[in-house]
Design a protein that fits this description.
mainly alpha; RNA-mediated gene silencing; two-stranded antiparallel ribbon; about 170 residues
């Protein structure tokens, strides 16, 4: 079930259903469903002309698209977690995959922000743990009569690791 578009302030004409974007309030008409059976005060050809003009303005950077990030980062309970995740994915796609293909005024602002960010060249997905942490596996164990498996004491394990050159912390 696709939600109805709210009429953006710059768009004249009737409110339409968005075929590609399922949210209730959308500032950018991605593709309008003209044959939805709704009453219309403009013809299909006028709608297509307007869509083409508005698309060119978006493409040239005349309008900024902030809807996806706003919905994705909102704390509102009106939208489900899945809908927020869909909006964040759309925002990520627009920012990462379409950034170089669309000449927009926000591109220069984003480039300036990246130049100021000292971590812009870092892999932000890399997980960092400090102090370094390790998981000890394959510890020799013994099976007791009651069925439990037990290993050596923690102090014996720590002493063994120190002998091997490690400096385990508590």
């Amino acid at each position: 079930n696709l939600g109805a578009l709210s009429k953006p302030s710059l768009l004249p004409g009737p409110v339409r259903r968005c075929r590609l974007h399922p949210c209730r309030r959308q500032q950018v008409p991605l593709k309008m469903d003209i044959s939805s059976g709704e009453d219309s005060d403009i013809s299909e050809s006028e709608m297509e002309d307007y869509e083409d003009k508005y698309y060119e303005k978006l493409k040239n950077g005349n309008y900024k698209i902030k809807h996806a990030s706003g919905v994705g980062k909102s704390n509102s309970d009106k939208r489900s977690a899945r809908e927020k995740a869909n909006h964040l994915a759309l925002f990520k796609y627009l920012e990462n995959d379409l950034r170089g293909t669309v000449g927009s005024s926000s591109s220069s602002a984003a480039a300036a922000a990246e130049a100021e960010d000292p971590l812009s060249g870092c892999d932000h997905d890399e997980k960092i743990v400090w102090p370094w942490t390790g998981v000890v596996v394959n510890i020799p164990t013994q099976k007791l009569e009651d069925g439990r498996s037990v290993g050596g004491s923690g102090s014996k394990l720590r002493d063994e690791l120190i002998r091997r050159g490690f400096n385990p912390l508590r």
